[in-house]
Amino acid sequence: MKKRPTDSKKFPVSTQAVAPAPSAPSRANLAVLPAPRTNLTAEEACPFRQLIREWLDYCRSDGLSRETVEDYREKVFKFWWWWGEYTRYAENLGAHPEHVTNKEAREYAAYLRTPLAFRWGVAVPPAKQSLSPASVASYGRSVKVFFSWLEREGHIPHTPFNKNVRFTNRNKAAAVIKRVEEEDLNRIFSELTRPENLKTYSGSRNLAMLALLLDSGMRRGELLSMRLCDIDLRRNRAVIRGKTGERTSYFSDTCRIAVSDYLQHYRLEQDEELGSALWLAEDGVPLSYGGFGMVVRRLEKRSGVDFHPHRLRHTFASQLARQGVNVFDLKEMLGHRSITTTQIYVQQNPDRLAEVHRAYSPLTALPASQQLRHRGRPRKS
User: Which among 121, 148, 294, 367 is least buried, having the fewest CB atoms inside 10 angstroms?
Assistant: First the structure.
């Protein structure tokens, strides 16, 4: 195990004695004080970046989840990239958040809504050059939280991201639930269940993860935070922890087989305690968000299906709603705080509504409509 560097290596120690106060007797002992660092890099000395790091520390101390803090970090540092690299405002206006005004805030909202071949300094595929309304709102929400904190802490007089800067459409359209269609699901799992993949540790792990996402409806963060002791193969259930707290998630016998096969590889290659992470990379460390993202991107390329892991959750919810699962039970399985969120899956399920209409059609219930049922196809004129 590597030893942590001592503080004396990180902070040079001054041996200069502190002069005694005029009224106090002289003391023989010397005060040892850490000297301030003078070799800060330009990046470390940047007040904008320093305040972002201070804010992230505040978020951690306030009890926000690791996933939320990581999401904030990614999105707010991208705003700093836009301020410093894209617009050069850091050079022309200043490298402190106090120089951001309402005008620049609106420019940033416009940047998010504009289709771009290069975004955040990297090339973007044509299909992803436009951010979705949900992504625009998410970027805006993160930056608003940061600048609101700056205002509360007195770092800026007032936030420039006020109600005049909008990251959502004024005529907000109804949320569209995007699912993975059955044909695409077959292509994804046909790739995952190829014999040569199932023989490997990573192949069995990838199948188990994607099977759990689809079969339980859990979130990506809930999946990656699972520990070995959270899975109960005997009762086909698992304890998961997410942004709405801890709950029990359920899965089928088919999913249990996939998870069980993965655990056989897990035990062969690892010697871990039950409290350790359930999903591990090939080198034995817990699988990160970036590592899981790499798994999905490779699967997209090999299966030819462009999908996002969260769409598997949408697919789970939509199919259960179609089968007539009670909306209150569905709410508990999805871990929603409000049943209003769950109702979206019921309201936007045309197949289920078609079945309901077919069973309760008012015209079909009329006795006079019996003659229409037995009539043949009209003759062509």
Answer: 367
Give the sign of the dihedral formed by CA 251, CA 253, CA 256, CA 258.
negative
Q: Read off the tokens for 93.
A: 């206006």
Distance CA 94, CA 281 (A): 42
CA proximity to 207, closest of 289, 308, 279, 270: 279
Tell me the pLDDT tens digit for each residue of 168-217: 876 554 556 778 888 999 999 999 999 999 999 999 999 999 999 999 99
Query: pLDDT at residue 313 above 60?
Result: yes
8 Å CB contact between 249 and 256? no
Integer Cα distance of 117 and 129 in angstroms: 6
What is the pTM for the complete model shown?
0.59
- DSSP β-bridge partners for residue 232: 237
Q: Which of 114, 116, 115, 93 is nearest to 104 (CA)?
A: 93
Quick one: three-class SS letters along 284-343? CCECCHHHHHHHHHHHHHHHCCCCCHHHHHHHHHHHHHHCCCCHHHHHHHHCCCCHHHHH
Are residues 215 and 209 in contact, defined by beta-carbon separation less than 8 angstroms? Answer: no
pLDDT in tens, 49-108: 999 999 999 999 988 878 788 899 999 999 999 999 999 999 999 999 999 999 999 999
Q: Rounded to an integer, what distance in angstroms lies between the CA atom of residue 180 and that of residue 307?
A: 7
Q: What is the DSSP string of 228-293?
A: GGGEETTTTEEEEEETTEEEEEE--HHHHHHHHHHHHHHHHH----TTSBSSB-TTSSBPPHHHHH
Determine the 3-state secondary structure of 118 from DSSP.
Answer: strand
CA distance 233 to 148: 46
Token look-up 């201070």 returns 54
Show the CA angle centred on residue 240, arms to residues 287 and 301, nearest 5°: 40
